[in-house]
Structure to design on (280 residues):
């Protein structure tokens, strides 16, 4: 019976500790330095603002490191009897940035809904036809005369890929001139126009671009299906968020009373004059 009582008491204590751990809040005091509290919220913010190279460290390591850092900062900060004006200015800037960031987060969160994403997708792709992709190979040489000779050679039965390996000056030469699959706008205009005009298996005449002279063979072509909503979800999300921020800023600017300096009132070079931040 005594053992059972001790067991129940231990279980109850464990429950209290577990409940306390889950009931933690940002205002909980983690440490105190000469009467100045360091709260859990301050540690969480510090953790979130760590450089990327530290983000993957275990939280037990970060907890100790962050707490040590904040304690050391507080010890040093306590040595400053009067805050320099540059500190107050920096805090104003930081507060402005943080407050603006909160509003941007609210705007962007509200801008992206399933309905808005579907509408943006429909607007972009409604009535759009699948585009064509091409798989081609080429042989690049320096002069038109060389290109004519290559054309004569492959028309006479020479293997296109072997000829490319032998004479092409382009980086695809060692691969038999293979360029893989590409779509509209991925090649320079004269090259693309020549490819579009070819039938599958056909070999072009000499085509001049800024890179030299090409003999092109169209290996295959295929219809490039329109992307699904999931394929472009991230892109559309960014567009919706940007548009919402821009729209809201326009509304705020139109409704605000904003005064700007007269032209020439400030020399732009003053931005690097840190002496202005020194207390007089």
């Amino acid at each position: 019976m005594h053992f059972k009582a001790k067991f129940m008491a231990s279980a109850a204590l464990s429950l209290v500790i577990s409940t306390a751990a889950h009931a933690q809040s940002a205002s909980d005091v983690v440490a105190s330095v000469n009467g100045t509290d360091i709260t859990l919220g301050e540690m969480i913010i510090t953790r979130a603002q760590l450089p990327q190279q530290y983000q993957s460290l275990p939280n037990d390591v970060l907890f100790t490191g962050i707490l040590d850092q904040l304690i050391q900062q507080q010890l040093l900060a306590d040595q400053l009897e009067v805050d320099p004006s540059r500190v107050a200015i920096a805090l104003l800037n930081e507060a402005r940035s943080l407050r603006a960031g909160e509003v941007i987060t609210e705007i962007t969160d509200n801008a992206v809904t399933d309905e808005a994403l579907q509408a943006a997708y429909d607007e972009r792709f409604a009535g759009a036809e699948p585009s064509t992709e091409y798989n081609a190979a080429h042989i690049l040489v320096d002069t038109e005369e060389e290109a004519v000779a290559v054309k004569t050679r492959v028309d006479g039965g020479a293997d296109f890929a072997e000829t490319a390996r032998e004479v092409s000056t382009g980086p695809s030469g060692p691969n038999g001139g293979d360029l893989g699959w590409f779509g509209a706008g991925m090649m320079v205009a004269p090259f693309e126009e020549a490819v579009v005009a070819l039938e599958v298996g056909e070999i072009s005449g000499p085509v001049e671009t800024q890179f030299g002279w090409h003999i092109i063979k169209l290996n295959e072509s295929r219809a490039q299906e329109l992307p699904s909503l999931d394929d472009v979800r991230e892109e559309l999300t960014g567009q919706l968020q940007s548009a919402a921020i821009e729209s809201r800023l326009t509304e705020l600017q139109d409704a605000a009373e904003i005064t700007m300096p007269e032209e020439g009132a400030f020399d732009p070079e003053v931005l690097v004059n840190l002496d202005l931040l020194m207390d007089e």
